[in-house]
């Protein structure tokens, strides 16, 4: 092979100095490989452009006619079909460097032909003033190297995109299913044996030990939320794809121009580049899946909880890619000695990359379940701040390297989500009047909407901001019902904002406290339960807030023969008494069968002989406006067997069955396990499981 600049190593040094500049140009990575090979060849000739400080190299290159003429000649000789497109490298590079460039390809080519020195000694490093031609042997060597180098970048984009196509492919299939069942609802009630077996063993159940919405525990401490089997299959498929793509299609060659006889250096650099690009490509869907206003929830019918599962796993894989990117570049620098690594830390883009990687590690650490769940409001603030800093780090890391379109898309998605949140608040009326009161241990919010009014759908919820507390904090409240221009929300205090609200309302002696609130919503998609012959609704505690809407809608729209069974499981009478009016309205309908299961009665708690005669019970009854024993005919004492409740509902049904559950996390898991075991109990009639869970925290 003919060597330029006197030796292969000298050429490699000169060409390597151009490598960062070439990869920095926005839009040039899609140019033909011929462009890079010819530019490197032209750059290997001494045309006087040897000062790489500041913008001096760009100023020289963009105005050096012999160099540009040689570039055009090379493209015309070795890749005539792509010559003009290859020459586009020069104006794009100069524009990126803010240097004027006013030469066309035809002008450069004509100059190259007119000033050609066919006998020029390419082995000499004397200053060249004429244009030259490059032997095919030299061109092919550079082309091979550039194909390996830039081809690897292209593979990074293709493979990163493929992992995202995997997710959007799943979403597309779910969308088709969702649309099909909306157009042909009766089809959702029919079962086919092979599909039923897949649902029973691979899709619906928890991954293992029946644990899904409740956290997996180690010595009694919750440490992680475990995806369902269906979610796990999706996550595993994603991880396998990502892993395979990290280890295929590397073109290592002893004749590499940049790193001759150093396949270890080539692999380190290529792996670092590919993982960095794949990590970047995965950021936009990562942000999309974590947003409240993710249009895919509406399209697919998947829950926010499922998207949060995928959000976390995309984040983990993306961060692993980022760490491999950092490790790969560190190893690449160390191949040239510790001094080279030290010099790398003098570069701004390098330090911003290190900072982003470190911040990403903090994000991964503070997002573990134990911290996230116990201190959710604090987690959320820190998470948003850290992500913002992470994005800033990526911005300054890549602003001169390219790939910014993925960052622009990520910022746009995040900004769109936040803007829509604000719009939602102001559409409903902005700052609204709210009356808050406690009935037993239930917080009831009566909010008067002054703007857009919507008819609440079953399972819908809103995020509510309280001006009295930290105005940036918000909490999801289930929408119980609408009465005129008033919207009734209910919740029970756990920790964080709801605990603050409970203390504030309980400390006042008046019946209701006036508050100013902002309401963002509504969110949540209604489960398609209407075509099922029997609907078994199971609520645990304040989970009735989500289940009540289904019972109310089904009661109002019940078709002949549809059977609605409501089981409400509570610890004691405090919660049930707060919603006495709503439950009595359901029980009065012949289509609805109401069962209330109390784990323990108030009499047992107070040591009294009467279930409904303690002073506290009378106070709760007075607050609710009903007699304390109004629900006694529907009430039994004792914790029910969830499998028994669901099994009875399924086996006693004449046709298809939908099971809808919302309750404490462990109860949800029990219901999932019970329903999964009964999916094939009705033969050709489908048994479907729907779960409403706010367990993404």
From TrEMBL:
Its main location: membrane. The keyword Transmembrane applies. The keyword Methyltransferase does not apply. The chain crosses the membrane at residues 158-180, 201-226, 232-250, 271-289, 318-337, 349-371, 378-397, 532-551. Keywords: Disulfide bond, Electron transport, FAD, Flavoprotein, Glycoprotein, Ion transport, Membrane, Oxidoreductase, Secreted, Signal, Transmembrane, Transmembrane helix, Transport. It is a multi-pass membrane protein. Residues 412-529 form the FAD-binding FR-type domain. Residues 606-627 are annotated as: Disordered. It is found in: Membrane; Secreted. Residues 1-24 form the signal peptide. Belongs to the ferric reductase (FRE) family. PANTHER family: FERRIC REDUCTASE TRANSMEMBRANE COMPONENT 3-RELATED, FERRIC/CUPRIC REDUCTASE TRANSMEMBRANE COMPONENT. This is Ferric reductase like transmembrane component-domain-containing protein. It comes from Myxozyma melibiosi.
């Amino acid at each position: 092979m003919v060597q330029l600049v006197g030796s292969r190593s000298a050429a490699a040094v000169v060409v390597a100095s151009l490598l960062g500049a070439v990869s920095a140009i926005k839009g040039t990575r899609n140019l033909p490989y011929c462009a890079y090979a010819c530019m490197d060849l032209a750059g290997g000739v001494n045309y006087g452009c040897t000062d790489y400080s500041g913008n001096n190299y760009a100023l020289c290159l963009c105005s050096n006619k012999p160099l540009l003429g040689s570039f055009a000649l090379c493209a015309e000789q070795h890749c005539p079909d792509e010559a003009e497109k290859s020459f586009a490298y020069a104006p794009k590079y100069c524009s990126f460097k803010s240097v004027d460039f006013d030469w066309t390809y035809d002008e450069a080519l004509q100059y190259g032909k007119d000033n050609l020195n066919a006998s020029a000694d390419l082995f000499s490093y004397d200053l060249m003033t004429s244009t030259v031609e490059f032997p095919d042997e030299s061109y092919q060597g550079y082309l091979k190297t550039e194909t390996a180098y830039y081809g690897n970048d292209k593979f990074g984009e293709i493979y990163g995109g493929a992992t995202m196509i995997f997710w959007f492919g799943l979403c597309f299939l779910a969308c088709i299913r969702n649309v099909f069942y909306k157009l042909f609802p009766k089809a959702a009630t029919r079962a086919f044996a092979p599909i039923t077996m897949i649902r029973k063993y691979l899709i619906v159940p928890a991954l293992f030990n029946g644990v899904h919405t409740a956290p997996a525990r180690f010595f009694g401490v919750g440490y992680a939320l475990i995806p369902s089997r269906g979610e796990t299959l999706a996550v595993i498929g994603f991880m396998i794809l990502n892993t395979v793509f990290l280890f295929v299609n590397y073109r290592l060659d002893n004749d590499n121009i940049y790193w001759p006889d150093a396949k270890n250096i080539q692999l380190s650099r290529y792996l670092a580049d590919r993982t960095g690009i794949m990590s970047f490509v995965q950021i936009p869907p990562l942000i999309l899946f974590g947003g409240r206003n993710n249009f895919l929830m509406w399209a697919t019918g998947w829950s926010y909880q499922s998207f949060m599962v995928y959000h976390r796993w995309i984040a983990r894989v993306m961060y692993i890619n980022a760490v491999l990117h950092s490790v790969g570049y560190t190893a690449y620098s160390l191949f040239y000695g510790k001094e080279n690594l030290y010099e790398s830390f003098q570069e701004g883009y390098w330090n911003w990359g290190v900072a982003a990687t470190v911040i990403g590690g903090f994000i991964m650490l503070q997002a573990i379940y134990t911290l996230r769940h116990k201190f959710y409001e604090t987690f959320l603030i820190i998470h948003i701040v850290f992500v913002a800093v992470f994005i800033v780090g990526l911005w300054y890391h890549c602003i001169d390297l390219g790939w910014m379109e993925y960052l622009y898309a990520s910022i746009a998605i995040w900004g769109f989500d936040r803007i829509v949140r604000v719009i939602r608040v102001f559409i409903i009326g902005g700052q609204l009047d709210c009356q808050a009161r406690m009935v037993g241990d239930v917080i009831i919010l009566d909010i008067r909407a002054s703007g857009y009014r919507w008819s609440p759908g079953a399972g819908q919820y809103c995020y509510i901001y309280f001006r009295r507390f930290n105005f940036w904090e918000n909490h999801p409240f289930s929408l119980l019902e609408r009465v005129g221009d008033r919207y009734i929300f209910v919740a029970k205090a756990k920790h964080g904002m709801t605990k603050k609200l409970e203390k504030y309302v309980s400390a006042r002696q008046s019946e209701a406290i006036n508050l100013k609130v902002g309401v963002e919503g509504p969110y949540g998609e209604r489960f398609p339960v209407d075509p099922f012959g029997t609907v078994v609704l199971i609520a645990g505690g304040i989970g009735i807030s989500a289940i009540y809407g289904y019972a109310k809608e089904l009661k109002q729209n019940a078709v002949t023969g549809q059977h609605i069974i409501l089981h409400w499981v509570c610890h004691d009478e405090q919660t049930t008494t707060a919603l006495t009016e709503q439950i009595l309205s359901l029980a009065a309908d012949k289509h609805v069968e109401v069962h209330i299961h109390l784990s323990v009665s108030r009499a047992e708690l107070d040591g009294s002989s009467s279930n409904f005669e303690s002073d506290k019970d009378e106070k709760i009854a007075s607050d609710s406006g009903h007699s304390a024993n109004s629900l006694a005919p529907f009430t039994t004492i004792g914790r029910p067997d969830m499998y028994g409740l669901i099994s009875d509902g399924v086996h006693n049904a004449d046709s298809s069955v939908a099971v809808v559950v919302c309750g404490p996390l462990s109860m949800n898991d029990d219901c999932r396990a019970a329903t999964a075991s009964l999916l094939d109990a009705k033969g050709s009639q489908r048994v479907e499981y729907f779960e409403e869970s706010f367990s993404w925290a």
